[in-house]
Specification:
Layout: H1 3-35, H2 44-52, H3 62-87, E1 88-95, E2 98-105, E3 116-119, H4 121-141
Antiparallel strand pairs: 1-2, 2-3
Helix pairs in contact: 1-2, 1-3, 1-4, 2-3, 3-4
């Protein structure tokens, strides 16, 4: 593979990550529309915090709340990586024959000592997959648990 091929592959994987992040934001928005209407243009971290504050109720059980909080914990960890991928300039580095995407997030670095997040193509794919799995976890959290039938 030549340098251009590596560059294109990393950009393609980044694009897949961004699409998966959009799906995650949409899932969080749909849940917020049901449980805690708020602002349309809020930051994803603000939406997560607002969803954490939703109490259990007759339409949102304690079990659902527990599942939602677990998914929100995962989302918060993923958002740190998301921010670098979305807001960072991508530079392709080579580790021998292995391409590495270096994301320097302008919001998190200073001019004197920029900090880079380094991800391989495989890791970018794992980030996208984790985002899609989180969407499924969020859907599961919004599914009412089946009522247990006690035999008579």
């Amino acid at each position: 593979m030549n340098a251009l091929s590596f560059d294109l592959k990393l950009h393609l994987e980044r694009s897949k990550c961004i699409n998966a992040f959009v799906e995650l934001e949409q899932a969080l928005g749909q849940i917020a529309d049901v449980l805690a209407k708020g602002y349309e243009n809020e930051l994803i971290s603000q939406r997560i915090n607002r969803l954490r504050d939703v109490p259990a109720s007759s339409v949102f059980s304690k079990e659902q709340r527990k599942l939602l909080h677990a998914a929100l914990d995962d989302a918060e960890r993923l958002i740190v990586i998301r921010n670098d991928i979305v807001h960072g300039a991508l530079t392709v580095l080579m580790d021998g024959t292995k391409p590495i995407a270096a994301f320097i997030n302008v919001r998190q670095s200073d001019w004197l000592a920029p900090v880079a997040r380094l991800l391989t193509c495989e890791q970018l794919g794992q980030v996208a997959e984790k985002s899609r799995q989180l969407c499924q976890s969020l859907k599961k959290a919004m599914t009412k648990p089946a009522k247990q039938v006690v035999p008579s």
